[in-house]
Amino acid sequence: MSLLLRNALLLDVASGEYAEGDLRCADGRVVETGPGLSAPADTRVIDLAGAHVVPGLIDAHVHVTASTANLGSLASMSPSYVAAHSIRIMGAMLDRGFTTVRDASGADYGLADAQAEGLVRGPRLLFGGKGLSQTGGHADFRGRGEHLRDDHPCCSGVGRVADGVDAVRAAARDELRKGAHHIKVMASGGVASPTDRIDSTQYSMDELRAAVEEAEAANRYVAAHAYTARAVDRALEAGVRSIEHGNLIDDGSVELFRRHDAYLVPTLVTYWALKKEGLSYGLPERSWRKVDEVLEAGLVALERAARGGVRLAYGTDLLGGMHRHQSHEFRLRCEVQRPLDVLRAATTGAAELVGLAGELGTLAVGAHADLLVLDDDPLHDIGVLADPGRIRHVIQAGVLVSP
Predict the structure, then answer these.
(1) What percent of the chain has pLDDT over 70?
(2) CB count, 10 Å around CB of 381?
(3) CDD domains, alphabetically (predicted)?
(4) What is the DSSP pairing of strand 311-312 with strand 371-374?
(5) Which parts of 35-76 are beta strand (E)?
(6) Distance between CA 58 and CA 117 in Å, rounded?
(7) pTM, 2 dp
(8) Residues 218, 272 contacting (CB under 8 angstroms)
(9) Domains of the chain, earliest start first
(10) 389 Cβ contact list (under 8 Å, min separation 6)
(11) Nearest-CA neighbor of 193 among 318, 290, 321?
(12) What is the mean pLDDT of residues 336-351?
């Protein structure tokens, strides 16, 4: 199948420059760019009349199974019910221009395979399986009076508890066995978990290193949930590739990011949304009270990281009915960054993080033909991306998928 886009302004995200010309896709890839391209007789041709074309967006921190902000309730839900919600959530993400997402715990090979085979309409799904948590950690959703947990492989929860180096190794190996694209570890407390403090550190250094060793042995990597500078620094020293959130980092953390060539994935919009709507979508009140601890600090952390040259990727971490705010992250980040830099985080930066530089986040020949057609220039008005209604077309793997 071939698609030719004529008379476009094609964005090179790396340089920030547009080039006038045509772009042709075939067999899911970009095969040609340039002026006056010709194509086989059966090619679909769309004259864009000067519209802007940018790479498809990548959200590097989503939870497609999170149909509620009460993450602890997912484990007791029917897997088929959770899957039905996930399909709806993924389809809406695609309509917002996100052609690839990295799931930061919850999604599995079933959803990823279904999307790849065309059974599910949604972004390409890079999944991490269940996040690894110590007892009482960020993915242990038992209340203080609960003593049992369900570790059945069909359990729909977002995490699994593993204590001790051997158990962490076994859990990481098990997620990799099931095809995980990355391993997620909980290296600090969090908002959604019931019994931990946000400022706690979680997992010993030996346990963190064990997860990293297992991921690296499989040519994969570890993403770590962490908020405070102390928790972030421990995870970076252990060798994790990406820090999720990082709202409370300091200048020392920035130096460690650079030294380890690691990535920061801020998720500003989820705190904005949780504060406004979290209670309405199932967030327990005890968790809602934690939001203020990280809400104001997130923008400060992003500005500190950007100024210090930290590698950045776009992430949102939204839950329940708040998924609809996914694109608002663009506006929030533009309070301290240029639109081009935010777009890079959602294209080339995220592609580099997930090990798919040159394959995703670019309009270069040979890349996956994932791209957006926009009537206006997002480098001058980030609202073009923040408001999905202003996206004229979403193209995924060379096929027009929205509208």
Answers:
(1) 97
(2) 15
(3) Met_dep_hydrolase_A
(4) unpaired
(5) 44-47, 52-55, 57-62
(6) 20
(7) 0.95
(8) no
(9) 2-56+359-402 (2.30.40.10), 57-353 (3.20.20.140)
(10) none
(11) 290
(12) 98
